[in-house]
Specification:
The complex is a heterodimer of chains A (730) and B (244). Chain A is an alpha+beta fold and 730 residues long. Chain A contains 25 helices and 28 strands. The longest helix of chain A has 21 residues, at 134-154. Chain B has 6 helices and 11 strands. Chain B has helices at 14-24, 67-77, 87-94, 151-159, 218-230, 239-243; strands at 3-7, 29-33, 44-47, 81-85, 101-103, 111-119, 135-142, 146-148, 163-168, 187-191, 197-200. In chain B, the strands form 2 sheets. Chain B has a 9-stranded mixed sheet, with helices on both faces. Chain B has a two-stranded antiparallel sheet with strand order 5-8. Chain B is globular and about 45 Å long. Classes of the chains: A alpha+beta (730), B alpha/beta (244). The interface between A and B is medium-sized, with 32 and 32 residues.
């Protein structure tokens, strides 16, 4: 009988072990136990989430590939397709921020080019604890440095993303990396080991002892021993990955590859058994042939290593030499390590002995499925910040300023724009190469990033949204808000939302409250994505985001991709010309923390049509920090030139501070040369519009019920905004 | 006229340069593999940005041993136009085709942003379409762009008018604030003594179309075309030029 200690080390339960014995009809070898433990880990098997994920919409007219492959794929016309996905690297990034984040970027890029697509854009969504704690500064600096290190060298532009701070991320930062690639739609490659007798070929970096049990680590919470898990974090080499990219794409272009999958989580194990399972074939591996960085590695270590920058591919047996030639040209290791067989088994040999023999299907598809208990939490976070979610994670004095009836709005506005959650992110994205590949039309700092598609008139818009405070308050509504905001961002950029990917960051799934949050979020995402016709083509679930038993906020991050039919439609969030009118469009029913999907659709249709008819000079989604902050952002978020001022009347509904900073759903701030036409169209569509004033001058002036409540030099306001984050870091 | 864009393992702006030459400037262009040993048929060679050999050891330190570098050295000595952008500049400096060295940015961080350059001389094959003191808006993206040279070298390149671009304000003032990386004398780009080899850290390949935020970089590529027409490198000038 296997010891309890051994099972604990492998994060397997007694009943899971029994299931393994039943499948094998004998006790597993230690190598087999390791293989099962990673393949059945939460990270690889989705054993707690799968029963819920099935409720997400995954099909649509543009979807060429839904969940289950390395990335989702959509058709964008002109014979082109786009592969995209988001993935988490939270646990490694807490233990070793720089390498954890770097390898997160490396992993998602491999997922994209594994399918044959050249990555043309990356984004990231980051969450940290408040910066007044020294440790959080160190984590932020490491994570940003790691993302820059990897993405910049690889040569993918990091064109956007989001960074938010809240207490719950202090011991558990979130690092979610998104990547998007483009290719011809008849040249898609899959991770399938077809063709009995075909060689299984290993390419890229050598296998070392790094990252062993990374997937298992990502499937448990952290306690005091977090530092001791540092050896579980892999080390990234973006140069090697760049060579792999070029070599793989060249081999694909030459028609040499039958199936291909990257070695990410669970390394050689996962790539081989999944490729076999998908094709219904067996895979035989000879570990003595696997390139190794260290001497005397055991079969267990080789199979579980998560060394980075490795790929496994199956080639047509007549083309083995040609494959070798391509990889040698790029100076890469390339070795045949096995064959495709017809027996459906993953058979692993080392030193002339079979060390593992497991049905591929059992590993890839027969992991236990858990219908874990759900329970609405007894308490949820307080409603105190319902109107001002941007204040979450701020120091108490700052929060008091907004809640205490202070009406010095000059001061409040400066505080808001320099606050951790709203201040300028340039310190972050200036470290990312966001222009390489020369496609970036709209880079970081607008509602959505926009990259052109060379050779066509089209462009792609993309955005990440994860309103965690809202989700923590009301998981289902928060999830709908995330989808709505992501779609609105795409529409404001001049695009049509097409499909989504999601990264679902949650606490411990063994806590019924966490599973309830998860289930509610899935229902919210499902409802909203169905409503907007934006299927979810893939993504990632990250559970066990807890430290010392405290779960993070439920934090779904939604990645939305949209198509801009003609680059002339590209619209920015920044004001363009002095003298333009500033128009606020909102719904008749004002909601906070909830959303009316019909109203949301009306506003998005209105914006799309107005952009198409050249009525809109700029469009900005009004979200955290409300009207006043959105207005300031439209004044200074054009990084191509100096900030511009504005003078407007603030519509009054409730009370001064709420009307300025309150976060009501479904509003947009537009600028236009034809306010009358724009407003009359909005009114016809049942929306409420306000022609508020003009762009121009070098001051921001807000009038409220006849009184001048804000009057501040743009320079002063912009400086406060720009220096917010650097000041917190200094 | 034919341009060549060199690909080293780890180059990542080769497609950007290729695109500008072919689609923006409208000239024939081909890639050159780092193991090629001949530049026969090429009139201008571009070393693109990126991380050749992963920048291991030092930027450009390994790339200079690529077989193509010998051919590039010969080509440069024969007066051919050799243009290094960003990592290409680092490689040319490391190979001794340009004086000085590029050190780690003074802020120790990679920096990617649009900034301004002041043109210091119109008397090069890369700036003949520009005016002296003309300000260009061109982005940088690098971690090692801090130009350094010993005092004698610095004096020599200044005296010879080899400094082509300096980091400046939008009004063309040379200030410490305008300097993104700590470069001596705000140097952003230099030519060799014979003025046929240019290295610059900023990226004209990313700023040759208004769609991308600026088309100022195009003037540099067009100057190259102009210069090659002037030297009559065996091609037919484009129609727009032949009309004038």
């Amino acid at each position: 009988m296997v010891s309890e200690e051994l099972l604990t080390q492998h994060n397997l339960t007694e009943s899971e072990y029994q299931k393994i014995v039943d499948i094998l009809k004998r006790p597993p070898t230690i190598t087999e136990l390791g293989i099962f433990s990673v393949m059945w880990s939460e990270h690889c098997s989705y054993k707690s989430s799968r029963v819920h994920l099935r409720r997400l919409p995954t099909r649509g007219p543009a979807v060429l590939q839904g969940p289950g492959e390395n990335a989702g794929i959509i058709d964008i016309g002109d014979g082109l397709a786009v592969a995209f996905k988001i993935e988490s690297h939270n646990h490694p990034s807490f233990i070793e921020p720089f390498q954890g984040a770097a390898t997160g970027v490396g992993g998602i890029l491999r997922d994209i080019f594994t399918m044959g697509a050249r990555p043309i854009a990356a984004m990231n969504s980051l969450r940290f604890g408040p910066l007044h704690k020294q440790q959080n500064k160190r984590i932020l600096e490491g994570v940003v440095g790691g993302i820059a290190f990897y993405g910049n060298c690889f040569g993918v532009p990091t064109v956007g993303g989001e960074v938010y701070f809240a207490d719950c991320y202090s011991q558990n930062p979130l690092v979610n990396a998104f990547a998007l690639g483009i290719f011809e739609k008849d040249k898609i490659f899959y991770g399938r080991a077809h063709g009995v007798g075909n060689p299984v070929i290993y390419v890229g970096a050598k296998t070392g002892r790094d990252g062993i049990h990374g997937a298992t680590m990502a499937s448990a919470g952290f306690g005091e021993d977090a530092g001791a898990k540092r050896p579980n974090v892999q080390i990234g080499d973006p140069f090697m990955e760049k060579l792999l990219l070029e070599a793989c794409l060249e081999a694909m272009q030459k028609g040499l590859i039958v199936g291909i999958q990257d070695m990410g989580a669970a390394g050689l194990t996962c790539s081989s058994c999944e490729m076999g399972a998908r094709a219904g074939t067996g895979v035989e591996l000879e570990l003595d042939d696997v390139p190794q960085r260290e001497a005397e590695m055991t079969a267990y270590e080789i199979m579980l290593s998560e060394s980075q920058e490795r790929m496994l591919l199956v080639a047509d047996k007549s083309k083995e030499k040609e494959v070798f030639d391509v990889f040698h040209k790029w100076g890469l290791d390339v070795v045949t390590v096995g064959r495709v067989t017809d027996d459906g088994l993953l058979r692993v040999r080392q030193h002339g002995k079979v060390v593992a023999e497991i049905p591929n299907g059992a590993l890839a598809d027969e992991a236990p499925l858990y219908q874990r208990p759900l329970l609405p939490p007894r308490s949820i976070i307080s409603s105190r910040l319902e109107h001002y979610s941007f204040l979450d994670g701020c120091e108490p004095a700052m929060i008091e300023g907004f809640l205490s009836g202070n009406t010095d709005c000059n001061q409040l506005l400066k505080l808001a724009v320099s606050s951790p959650n709203l201040s300028c992110r340039q310190w972050v994205w200036e470290q990312y190469d966001h222009m390489v590949q020369s496609n970036t039309i709209v880079g970081p700092g607008s509602d959505a990033a926009v990259v052109r598609v060379k050779g066509t008139k089209k462009a792609l818009a993309m955005t990440l949204d994860g309103p965690a405070y809202r989700v923590a308050r009301h998981p289902r509504e928060g999830a709908k808000l995330a989808v709505a905001e992501a779609c609105r961002n795409i529409v404001c950029a001049g695009g049509r939302p097409i499909a989504a990917t999601n990264c679902l960051n949650f606490g411990n799934p063994e806590h019924p409250e966490v599973m309830w949050q998860f289930s509610e979020v899935i229902d919210g995402l499902s409802e909203a994505c169905t409503f907007f016709g934006t299927p979810v083509t893939g993504g990632n679930v990250s559970f066990y985001n807890e430290t010392f038993g405290d779960d993070i906020y439920p934090t779904p991050v939604l990645g939305m991709v949209g198509l801009i039919e003609d680059i002339s439609l590209v619209t920015r969030s920044a004001f363009q010309d002095s003298g333009d009118s500033i128009v606020l469009v909102e719904t008749v029913n004002r909601l906070v923390g909830r959303i009316d999907l019909e109203d949301e659709r009306a506003i998005q249709n209105f914006i799309s049509t107005a952009i198409r008819d050249s009525l809109v000079k700029s469009a900005h989604d009004v979200s955290e920090g409300g009207f006043a902050v959105a207005l300031a952002e439209s004044c200074y978020s054009n990084f191509h030139r100096r900030a511009v001022g504005a003078e407007v009347r603030v519509p009054s509904h409730l009370e001064l501070v709420k009307d300025l900073f309150g976060e009501f759903s479904t509003r947009v701030l537009l600028s236009t040369a034809n306010a009358a036409e724009l407003c009359s169209r909005a009114d016809q569509m049942g929306l409420k519009s306000h022609d508020l004033g003009k762009v121009g001058g070098n001051r921001l002036i807000l009038n409220y019920e006849g009184e001048r409540v804000v009057d501040i030099a743009m320079d002063e306001l912009e400086t406060a905004w720009r220096q917010g984050l650097p000041k917190l870091l200094s | 006229m034919k341009f060549g864009v060199v690909i080293f393992p780890g180059s990542n702006c080769e497609h950007d340069c290729y695109y500008v030459v072919e689609s923006v400037v409208g000239q024939p262009v081909e890639f050159i593999w780092h193991q090629d040993t001949s530049l026969k048929g090429f009139d201008g060679v571009i070393l693109p940005g990126g991380f050749a050999y992963g920048d291991y050891l030092r930027t450009g330190a390994l790339a200079k041993f690529s077989p193509v570098m010998k051919a590039i050295g010969d080509f440069a000595r024969q007066g051919g136009l050799v243009f290094g952008i960003c990592n290409g500049f680092q490689i040319l400096a490391e190979a001794g085709l340009l004086p000085g060295a590029l050190l780690r940015n003074i802020g120790l961080k990679y920096v990617c942003k649009f900034l301004y350059l002041r043109t210091e001389t119109a008397d090069t094959p890369y700036t003949n379409m520009l005016k002296k003191t003309q300000v260009l808006r061109i982005p940088v993206g690098h971690g090692d762009g801090n130009y350094f040279a010993d005092p004698e070298t610095l004096k020599r390149i200044e005296d010879n008018g080899q400094v082509v671009f300096r980091y400046a304000t939008a009004d063309g003032e040379i200030t410490p604030e305008a300097n993104p990386n700590g470069s001596l004398h705000n140097i952003a780009g230099i030519v060799n003594e014979h003025r046929n080899v240019l290295g610059m850290m900023p990226h004209p390949d990313r700023s040759s179309e208004n769609l991308l935020g600026s088309a100022d970089g195009k003037l540099i590529f067009e100057s190259m075309v102009n210069a090659l027409i002037g030297t009559n490198a065996g091609f037919s000038p484009r129609s727009s030029n032949s009309k004038s």
